[in-house]
Automatic annotation (TrEMBL):
Keyword Membrane tagged: yes
Entry's transmembrane regions: 31-54, 60-77, 98-119, 139-157, 169-190, 215-237, 257-274, 294-313, 347-365, 371-396, 417-435, 441-460
Protein known as: Amino acid permease
Keywords of this entry: Amino-acid transport, Membrane, Transmembrane, Transmembrane helix, Transport
Broad class of the protein's primary localization: membrane
Subcellular location: Membrane
Length: 470
């Protein structure tokens, strides 16, 4: 059975004669660094600034709460992926647990999210390049990045692994250096600085300067900053030791989230007044380093943000192509997308890259209607995916305990209570999104997309069932 297919208790796999299995070209060092660096996205370096401006010092609490939710999701996903490694990851698990329509909905919604995200990350990277090279066209930079990463992913999975290994290494190094400098400054050990104490944490309106509303805005912003964690479970299926790789990645997720996200936010709000306009305008990392008179802080962080954006582009093209390939292998998409050559789903790679570039062109041609509509539709997709993960884990855990307990290499904590707690947390985030004017349209647009995909998936499921019965 192909690793991209669902087991026998699911819909039978339909493959074309040209189909061949994906290779296992990712080494353990690749998977380890993908897991380590996948949590560090451009949203952490730049997007967190607006969250701090809204929540003040309570952003640390917001990231801790959302981080706890993400850790539960990763633990659930890790349990299922270690038991059944598949490049379709949660889409395969949803199909096995709930039905083909659920795998269809979770998989194609995530594919759509990744394709649009590729375009957004390309635009962000292009803006940095045009700042360094005034007069150059943004679209040309995006096209260049698209070609580079498309070719990289077309060649072999080990190329993706190598790019991500070094991208992740640079991001991790940047975060570690920032935390080291920040810790020295907080303790007063950095030359030319004095320990700030709790002045910035309790002054300027206190720890909750904007009350619960500010905390809610910060919480919503922080939830969506954790994107990218799912890639490691997709990549694990093409690694040398998928089960061990997933288990290790999941078990280290807690300290990675705690150190990189919560630790960074704590450093920023301890060293800087949250009211400092530079936090939102320049980003919290640049603002903090400039506050400490670190030379060339702005340009150094621009390089780091560029690396984070390019890393995300590379990972999202990879993830989108593997998700599409897995869906096709299970009879839930156009067969052409499932063609594998040299161990790589090359048509899926090309299609995912093209869709990403079309999104970039729409940002120039139709920024106020079509492109805005696309942005709203992807706004809450990650939450939809997390719900599928939690429901799937509830079902599959019972099945594994009954049929194959030896496959439970990774176990969800306090099952089923923490799974239910995570579902309650996701429901709470949906309610908060509905309350906030800035996120309400995203919730509605994502809901419409999810409903349309669920209906299409159910119709496909019924059609295939009827055709088999004839």
């Amino acid at each position: 059975m192909s690793r991209t297919s669902a087991p026998a208790d699911s819909t039978p796999v339909e493959q074309t004669p040209a189909d061949a299995p994906l290779t296992h070209g990712l080494k353990q060092r690749h998977l380890s660094m993908i897991a380590l660096g996948g949590v560090i996205g451009a949203g952490l370096f730049v997007g967190s600034g607006t969250a701090i401006a809204a929540a003040g010092p309570s952003i640390v609490l917001a990231y801790a709460l959302s981080g706890a939710l993400v850790m539960l999701v990763m633990r659930m996903l890790g349990e299922m992926s270690a038991a059944n490694p598949a490049s379709g990851s949660f889409s395969v698990h949803a199909e096995r647990a709930i039905g083909p329509w659920a795998g269809f909905t979770a998989g194609w919604s995530f594919w759509f999210l990744l394709c649009v995200a590729v375009g957004l990350e390309g635009i962000g990277a292009a803006k940095i390049m045009t700042g360094w090279f005034p007069g150059t066209a943004e679209w040309a930079w995006v096209a260049l990045f698209m070609v580079v990463f498309c070719v990289t992913n077309l060649a072999a999975v080990k190329n993706f692994g190598e790019f991500e290994f070094w991208f992740a290494a640079l991001k991790v190094a940047a975060i570690v250096i920032f935390l080291a400098i920040g810790t020295l400054a907080i303790t007063g050990l950095l030359p030319g600085t004095e320990a700030p104490g709790t002045t910035n944490l309790t002054g300027h309106g206190g720890f909750l300067p904007s009350g619960s509303e500010g905390l809610i805005v910060g919480l919503l912003a922080s939830v969506f900053a954790y994107g990218g964690l799912e890639t490691v479970t997709i990549a694990a299926a093409e690694s040398e030791h998928p089960v061990q790789g997933v288990a290790k990645a999941v078990r280290t997720a807690m300290w990675r989230i705690g150190v990189f996200y919560i630790g960074s936010m704590a450093v920023v709000v301890t060293l800087l007044p949250w009211t400092d306009k530079a936090v939102a305008e320049k980003g919290p990392y640049v603002a903090t380093l400039e506050h400490l008179d670190i030379p060339y802080a702005g340009q150094i962080m621009n390089v780091v943000v560029l690396v984070a954006l390019l890393s995300a582009m590379n990972a999202n093209i990879y993830g989108a192509s593997r998700m599409a390939n897995s869906l096709v292998a299970r009879g839930q998409g156009p067969k052409a997308l499932g063609r594998i050559s040299g161990g790589v789903p090359r048509i899926a790679v090309l299609m995912s890259s093209v869709i990403g570039f079309v999104c970039v062109l729409l940002s120039y041609w139709r920024p106020n209607d079509v492109f805005l509509w696309l942005l709203n539709m992807i706004g809450a997709i990650i939450l939809v995916v997390w719900i599928f993960i939690a429901v799937s884990q509830l079902v599959l855990r019972r099945r594994l305990e009954r049929e194959a307990p030896e496959k439970l290499v990774v176990r969800m904590w306090a099952y089923p209570y923490l799974t239910y707690a995570a579902l309650a947390g996701m429901a709470a985030v949906f309610v908060l999104m509905a309350r906030e004017e800035g996120t309400r349209n995203q919730l509605y647009a994502t809901g419409a997309l999810t409903l349309a995909l669920a209906v299409a998936g159910y119709v496909l499921q019924r059609t295939r069932k009827d055709s088999r019965e004839v």
